[in-house]
């Protein structure tokens, strides 16, 4: 089984940033309000993610690290309308098969915590361990037992950069959650939680924290609904002259994705009203019935497939075209 998990890890775990992504997404799925992220040596030596979410019962710990055991969907019907970030049940077993791994937790409403260690896929015994409500996952020495993968890891700064970029992407979508990051024992970043925002994603503070005040000052706020679709967020106006292709954030039902068709719609709307040839900078959230989008396209879930891709493309194009045209009028 370790071998199968290691093979799966090839798809899910590319580098420390992918581990951080999977673990923080689990924390968010568990309803965490605060997530602490401690890193050493760009995450290669240590990734420790601690959350204050619902936690895991001692007897459920082995399930959490079992392949395709997910608590998030129970049937194919659920998969059709999945609303959690995770659902494939392969992140923890994959990560645990290529690291020295420890899962500690205390379930909400229970008074005892427990811990389970896995060493390169070898599962230990459940042991009692005091723990506040929530979960801590420790991942040490990533790829220590897969030299071929370890060899491809980049310098500490590069790996840290990938983690920070992913956290920025997350922070933009979840201003309601506090994220605290440390690297080699020093606090490096703190994204303060902004309480229970009804309108998730539309936070002025987070926007300027994440993309800079220049972006926040020059961005046009977008908010439009129609055809059971909602597009909201920000797109930079021509006055913003630092736009580049790496300031393009797109979320579908809260999940950061890459989508050529939507990227094209945004670019086209921008070019038609404002500038030809210039990259638009944006943070856009598309919300739609989860049944209209398939998120199970790739193990890392960077991509989605829409039932009615053409309609969505046109909706995004039209919305942005109208919004931008108005600023010109
Ligand atoms: P998935 O997220 O696709 O369900 P994972 O392998 O990432 O699969 O996690 C397996 C299971 O472990 C989850 O379904 C969940 O029940 C449990 N789990 C993992 N991380 C946490 C966490 N931080 N808090 C509570 N439960 C967790
Ligand atoms: Mg998961």
What is the topological layout?
Blueprint lengths: L1 H11 L3 H14 L4 E7 L5 E6 L9 H4 L11 H5 L10 H7 L2 E7 L7 E6 L2 E2 L3 E2 L5 E7 L6 H4 L5 H18 L4 E6 L2 E6 L12 H8 L1 H6 E8 L2 E8 L11 E5 L2 E2 L3 H14 L8 E7 L4 E2 L10 E2 L2 H20 L1
Parallel strand pairs: 1-8, 12-14
Antiparallel strand pairs: 1-2, 2-7, 3-4, 3-7, 4-5, 4-6, 8-9, 10-11, 11-14, 12-13, 15-16
Helix pairs in contact: 1-5, 2-7, 10-11
Bound molecules: adenosine-5'-diphosphate and magnesium ion.
**Strand content of the residues, in percent?**
25-35%
Shape: globular
What is the domain tally? Answer: 2
CATH architecture grouping of the largest domain:
2-Layer Sandwich
Can you say what the CATH homologous superfamily of the largest domain is?
Histidine kinase-like ATPase, C-terminal domain
Instruction: Compute the average pLDDT.
Output: 89
Look at the structure and give the CATH class of the largest domain. Alpha Beta
- Backbone structural class: alpha+beta
Low-pLDDT windows of residues: 196-201
CATH topology of the largest domain: Heat Shock Protein 90
- The run of helices and strands is HHEEHHHEEEEEHHEEHHEEEEHEEEH
Kindly report how far apart the N and C termini lie: 63 Å
Helicity range: 25-40%
What is the β-strand count?
Answer: 16
Number of helices: 11
């Amino acid at each position: 089984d370790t071998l199968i998990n290691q093979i799966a890890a090839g798809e899910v775990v590319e580098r420390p940033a992918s581990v951080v992504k999977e673990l923080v997404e689990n924390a968010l799925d568990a309803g965490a309000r605060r997530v602490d992220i401690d890193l050493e040596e760009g995450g290669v030596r240590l990734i420790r993610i601690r959350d204050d979410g619902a936690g895991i019962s001692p007897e459920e710990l082995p399930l959490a690290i079992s392949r395709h055991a997910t608590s998030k969907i129970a049937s194919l019907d659920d998969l059709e309308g999945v609303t959690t970030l995770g659902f494939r049940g392969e992140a923890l077993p994959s990560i645990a098969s290529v690291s020295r791994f420890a899962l500690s937790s205390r379930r909400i409403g229970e008074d005892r915590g427990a811990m389970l260690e896995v060493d390169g896929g070898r599962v230990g015994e459940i042991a009692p361990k005091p723990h506040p409500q929530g979960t801590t996952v420790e991942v040490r020495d990533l790829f220590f037992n897969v030299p071929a993968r370890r060899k491809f890891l980049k310098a500490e700064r590069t790996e840290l950069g990938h983690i920070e970029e992913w956290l920025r992407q997350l922070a933009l979508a979840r201003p309601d959650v506090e994220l605290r990051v440390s690297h080699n024992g020093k606090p490096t970043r703190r994204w303060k939680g902004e309480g229970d925002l009804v309108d998730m994603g539309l936070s002025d503070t987070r926007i300027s924290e994440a993309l800079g005040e220049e972006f926040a000052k020059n961005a046009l706020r977008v908010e439009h609904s129609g055809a059971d679709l909602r597009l909201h967020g920000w797109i930079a106006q021509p006055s913003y002259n630092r736009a580049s292709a790496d300031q393009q954030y797109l979320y579908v039902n809260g999940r950061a994705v890459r989508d050529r068709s939507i990227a094209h719609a945004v670019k086209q709307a921008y070019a038609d009203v404002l500038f030809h040839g210039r990259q638009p900078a944006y943070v856009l959230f598309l919300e739609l019935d989860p049944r209209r989008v398939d998120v199970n396209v790739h193990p890392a879930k960077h991509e989605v497939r829409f039932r009615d891709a053409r309609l969505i493309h046109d909706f995004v194009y039209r919305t942005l075209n109208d919004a931008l045209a108005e600023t010109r009028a």
